[in-house]
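re: ur question from earlier - yeah i can do the single chain one, its not a big deal. heres the input i used so u can compare w yours
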Amino acid sequence: AHAEAGASRAAAQAALAFQEQRRLEADIAHARAHHEQLRKENLELQLAVEKERTARLRLEERVGTRHIDAEARRTIHSELFGFRGQKLAIITHAGDAESATFAGELKGALEAAGVSVTVVPALMFGKTQTGITLEVGSNRRQFATALAKAFVDAGVCHGPVTATESDDASLLEVLVGPKP
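and the output i got, formated as tokens:
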């Protein structure tokens, strides 16, 4: 009888242990499903954050001020090294703070490359030219070409730099207009 009671108790404990094992297995399955759901939600949130960041960067680029970073300064310096001592004027739109600030950074980068630069704010009439344009005298074409290439390579402007020919053969002016 004693053996039967022990066997009965052992069978009951085994049944309880089996029930507990099934409950734990169900909890594990539930936890795994919950973990997978949280992982999916996390991925969706990461995607939403990345989309917001991309949209914010596009907006900042469109409305923010232009700057010349260290890499752009290095590019300008290396590409204009052979033109040390050259002179040019940067013309800005009077009253346009963003253009004036950008022109100041451009002046610093050009002076670091050995170019002598003066900045002149001017009143502009007619249609405003955005971005960077050059006015080039016939004797300054080689330097103007190198300057435009350095600006494009440095990311200071995008696409080709527009230039007009000046009647003054020795003139080289960089017009810094409002941000495109």
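The helical segments are 2-63, 70-79, 97-112, 141-154. not sure if urs matches, ping me
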